[in-house]
Each structure stands twice: as C-alpha cells, then as structure tokens.
Amino acid sequence: MSLNDKSALVISIISLMVSALAVIVPYYQNEKQFEEQIVTYLKDSCVANEEIKINGYFMIKIPYHYRISNNGNITSSITALSVSELSQDKQTQTFANVGELIDSNKNNVRLPININSGESKLYTIYIPIVINKEISDKLISLKKMNKKITCEMAENFLGQDGKDFFNNRVSVKTYEGNMHYIRTCEEIKNNPTVFVKAHTAKGNIITAKNTIYECDLLK
C-alpha cells in the first residue's frame, strides 16, 4: 500500500469516527435529558408537639421529615416506599409498609406521588423503630393515660428514669425552668439508622438514610 493510500485510509477512518460521534453524542445527550434525577432527604423530626405512634409491643413510629426533589427534565412517579432499620448490632429489619405519609396540610398521602420537573415536596413520614421491652412497657403505660403522646411527653416521661427511646442513659439538666436531656456519644449505646427507599415507575430506587444521633457508632 502506497503512502497516499495509507493517508487516504487514515482520513477515511477519522471521518467515520467523526460521523459516528456526530450521531452518538446527540443521542447520548438526548437520552440523558430524559433520565430521572430524583433526590431524597431524610431527617428525624421527633420534637415538641410532634406525635409518636405506639405500634403494639416493642415498636414505635417516629416522625421524620422526608423531602423528594426532582432535578430532572421529566415528571417522575414514586410508586412505592420501603423502610429498613439497621440496629446497633447491625441487624437489619425491613418494613414493607411505611405507614403514614402526611403532607404540609396534615393530609394523608397515597401513592403514587407525581413530582414535576424542578419540583420538591416535603412530607412527614412515620417510620417504625424497634424498642426494648422496658421502654415499650413504659410508653404503653403512658398511652393508657393519654389519647395522644407527643415526642416531648414521651421524652419527659422516660427522662425521669434517665432513659431515652432507645434505652440510652441520659442526664437531666434544668435551664430557665425547662428540662433538657443530655447525651454523650460514650453513653449512646443504641443508635438506629433508618433507610427509606423510593421506588419509581421507571424502576429506579433512590435511598435516603438518617441516624438518630450524630455519633459514628456503626463502623
């Protein structure tokens, strides 16, 4: 093959590559444009007058803030939610039925949830948390005395015995007439992590997680 022929072959190959890229790049960009881009955020919100649910023995439901944001260019649909709890001993329990999902107007929300492009929705989601028998018995006795139990009521009731929801030791301090419950990372022996998985109509799964106390005890 002469030098001119080789040069012509190289030029032909380069031209083919450029032509292929001219087709592939717009196709990839177009596909990317229609990909789901869902972001979720989870944070416990068991404070003050927020209600907790006594869900039989050894389990309570704690309120969390759960935000779903759509950063993509298409409308997405959340068709199912599932919850897992990772306990301190790294035992995982999965709950298929999340329970109550409540919007900002205190209305119960049913799935599916449609999220438009650029839209963000904030909910309160009640997540099951496994507790031990001692704490369960105390909260059930409190429930018998009150129709509704708030996070503050439960915290004060358990705090009288120096305990929190998860049977951790707490110290009680009074400041300006209000009781405050102090925990140190050394005292926190039980610190569950919960995961909420959002399942979309396109088959994607987006996971948000939250650990109750900001102590890195699950390594």
Taken from the alpha-carbon principal axes, the silhouette is: elongated
Order of helices and strands: HEEEEEEEEHEHEEEE
**Estimated radius of gyration:** 26 Å
The end-to-end span amounts to 65 Å
The helix content is 10-25%
CATH class of the largest domain: Mainly Beta
* Strand elements, count: 13
Secondary structure tally, helices: 3
CATH topology of the largest domain: Immunoglobulin-like
Classify the beta-strand content into a percent band: 35-45%
The average pLDDT score comes to: 81
Count structural domains.
2
Which stretches are poorly predicted, pLDDT < 50 over at least 5 residues? none
- Going by helix content, strand content and strand pairing, the class is alpha+beta
CATH architecture of the largest domain: Sandwich
Largest sheet: 6 strands, antiparallel
Walk me through this protein's architecture.
The chain has 219 residues and is α+β, with helices and mostly antiparallel strands. The chain folds into 2 domains: 1-33; 39-211, Immunoglobulin-like (Sandwich). It is 24% helix and 37% strand. It contains 3 helices and 13 strands, in the order H-E-E-E-E-E-E-E-E-H-E-H-E-E-E-E. The strands form 3 sheets. Strands 1, 2, 3, 6, 8 and 9 form a 6-stranded antiparallel beta sheet that branches. Strands 4, 5, 7, 12 and 13 form a 5-stranded antiparallel beta sheet that branches. A hairpin with a 4-residue loop joins strand 12 (193-200) and strand 13 (205-211). The protein is elongated, with a radius of gyration of 26 Å. The model has no long low-confidence stretch (mean pLDDT 81).
